[in-house]
Amino acid sequence: MAEKKSQGVKWLPFILILVIAAGLWQLTPPSGLSAPAWHSAIIFVATIASIVAKVLPIGAVGIIGITVFALAYAAGDKTASGAITTALSELNSSLIWLIVVAFMIARGFIKTGLGRRIALQMIRLLGKRTLGLAYGLAFADLILSPAMPSNTARCGGVIYPIADSLARSFDSHPEDESRSKIGTFLITCIGNINDVTAALFMTGYTGNLLAVKLAANAGVTLSWGSWFMAALLPCLVSLLIVPLLVYWLTRPEIKHTPDARIWHAKNWRKWAVWRAASG
Question: Does the keyword RNA-binding apply (predicted)?
Answer without folding.
Answer: no
